[in-house]
Each structure stands twice: as C-alpha cells, then as structure tokens.
Design a protein that fits this description.
alpha/beta, single chain, two-stranded parallel ribbon, 27% strand
C-alpha cells in the first residue's frame, strides 16, 4: 500500500492573512503534479466536512497513482450565500501563489482540478495566463455563464457534472413569487462548454456522472457512479 507523505508550509496572501500550502506525495519520485482547488465549502486543509473527505480521498487516490498533489487553505465563507467576485479573486491569487511557490517541485504533466468555486478561480487564473501551460484541466460542477478566454495553453478542458446537479435561475427578477427556472446538466452543460474558449482553442468535453450531486456525492435514487474512479481516469492516475 502506498504511503501518502505530506509537507505543510506557511505563507501570507497579499492581504497579509497567513495560510498553509500542502504537498502530498509518494515515497518514490512523483511522475505528475496536480493542483487541487476545492469548492467554497472547503477552507482549512484539515477540515472534516463531507467535501473535505472527498478531496482527501481523491488526493490519496492520485498519490497512489504516482502524482504529487498541491493544495492550500482558503478563506472560510458562508455556504448559504452566493459566491462573490472577492471570493473568486482571493482564491485565484492563492492558487497563483501556490503554483509560484511550488514551481521548483513541479514534475511530469501538470493537471488542474477545480470544484465549483474552485473551478471558477482556476478559470480566472487561466485567463491571466498563469500557468503558461497545463496538460489537463478538470472542472467539477462549474457552470460557465459568460465567455472565458484562456490565454494559458490548455490542450483540453473536461467539464464534469453530477447528473442531479440542478441549477436554478429567477424566472423574473422583478417578481420573487414566481418559482425559479431549474435546469439539469442536460440543459446547461453544453452551453457552459461553448463559453470556454482560448488563444489555443482547447478541446472542451462534457462528462455527466449519473446518481451524483453538485460536488459528486451520491444523490437521488438508483445507482451512482464512483466519482474517484471517474476523476482519476480523466486526470490520468497512471502517468
């Protein structure tokens, strides 16, 4: 059984707030590098929520496949409130600092995985051209409502949605008594894909995982896909 080794470092963001970065890696030299950006529900690296556990399991699966995984603390936020531009900005900046501070450790193909708000932060980072290139980008539960023009060189972007990931919009902003219009991935996934564009014209593919919700936990009745197997196959657990 592969042992997951971890190394923590303290940093300060541009606002002066201290936070930790973490490198999870195998005993043998890593053959790939993965940057992991969690959803807005995940803040501390040692959190105990359901999404925290999913990210921890995904990290272990990737390390078993030979990769090193980089992630960092994020500011806590109220999960009941919509994500703000400030939420995206701070996450984007910390992810950029994570990449910069770990540049000397990078080895093998570079993959970026973002969940929900973490995926939005990664898209903002790729718009800025940092990093200049990544080999794989996997965005989970990230609805793209407006054109995102990536200046980073990205061969392909994988958009992953749970089959029960429902998105609601106000039917009429002037009448809050009307029920929201609700869409499933069959309605918004391809629409999101058309908004992901770039200087180097990436291939954008959509994957809908049946029986799973927004951050790929089992939802509804019937069989559910194994999210860890699906994600590691997209990223390339065996490099």
């Amino acid at each position: 059984m592969t042992t997951v080794h971890r190394h923590l470092r303290w940093h300060r963001d541009r606002g002066g707030t201290a936070y930790r970065t973490r490198r999870s890696f195998p005993a043998t030299p890593a053959n790939a590098t993965v940057v992991l950006a969690g959803p807005g529900s995940v803040s501390a690296l040692d959190g105990e929520g359901r999404d925290d556990r999913l990210l921890r399991d995904l990290t272990e699966r990737l390390v078993v496949g030979g990769a090193q995984v980089l992630d960092c603390d994020m500011p806590a936020r109220d999960p009941k409130s919509p994500a703000t531009e400030e939420d995206r900005r701070v996450r984007c900046e910390r992810l950029g600092q994570l990449l910069d501070s770990s540049r000397h450790l990078a080895t093998g193909p570079l993959s970026l995985i973002g969940f929900s708000l973490g995926g939005q932060a990664l898209l903002r980072l790729l718009e800025s051209g940092a990093p200049p290139r990544a080999d794989r980008v996997v965005l989970v539960g990230t609805v793209v409502e407006e054109d995102v023009f990536m200046t980073s060189r990205i061969p392909a972007v994988e958009l992953v949605y749970g089959g029960h990931d429902l998105v609601g919009y106000l039917a009429d902003a002037s009448d809050d008594k009307l029920p929201p219009a609700v869409f499933d991935p069959g309605m918004y996934a391809d629409w999101s894909a058309r908004h992901v564009i770039g200087t180097h014209t990436p291939a954008v593919r959509v994957h809908v995982l049946e029986g799973l919700g927004h951050t790929l936990h089992p939802c509804g009745t019937g069989p559910a896909r194994d999210p860890l197997t699906a994600l590691t196959s997209l990223v390339g657990a065996e490099w």
